[in-house]
């Protein structure tokens, strides 16, 4: 189950971090109108949701489930790895040694290991598309910037 941590500041948008521990989440900010926010607070005060974050997490999950057919069709058309995918130095070196370049497509979290030098990433990765979050060193992100959609 996913933990949600809510940052609370009066007069500020709701900020939510999804994940179990630092490094396993991406922080998002949701701007809501006053009336919508009031409805959320009413549902929380009535005990329908534990807090604003619980409401947002539930709403996001419901929308993902509602549109699951679109996800399935998209994955069928263009294969994509779903979840966490880690690319290490050995895998990129093997691709480079074989004379192939990787076309990376991830829905979730793509991690390029810290021990991967920028020149290796540049040589071994032909394209990269991440729907979610990419974790890589700043140098690797710089050399791959022109390969991102």
UniProtKB/TrEMBL annotation:
Coiled coil: none annotated. One of its GO terms (biological process) is regulation of DNA-templated transcription. It holds the Pfam family RHH_8. InterPro entries: Arc_rbn_hlx_hlx, RHH_8, Ribbon_hlx_hlx. It comes from the Bacteria. Gene3D superfamilies: Met repressor-like (1.10.1220.10). This is CopG family transcriptional regulator. It comes from Methylorubrum extorquens DSM 13060.
């Amino acid at each position: 189950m996913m933990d949600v941590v809510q940052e609370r500041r009066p007069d500020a948008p709701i900020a939510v971090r999804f994940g179990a521990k630092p490094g396993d989440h991406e922080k998002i900010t949701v701007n809501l109108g006053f009336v919508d926010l009031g409805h959320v607070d009413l549902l929380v005060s009535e005990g329908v949701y534990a807090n604003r974050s619980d409401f947002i997490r539930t709403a996001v999950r419901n929308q993902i489930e509602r549109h699951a057919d679109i996800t399935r069709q998209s994955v069928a058309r263009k294969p994509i790895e779903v979840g966490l995918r880690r690319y290490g130095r050995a895998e990129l070196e093997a691709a480079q040694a074989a004379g192939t370049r990787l076309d990376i497509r991830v829905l979730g979290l793509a991690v390029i290991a810290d021990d991967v030098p920028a020149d290796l990433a540049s040589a071994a990765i032909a394209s990269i598309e991440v729907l979610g979050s990419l974790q890589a060193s700043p140098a690797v992100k710089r050399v791959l910037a022109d390969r991102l959609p």
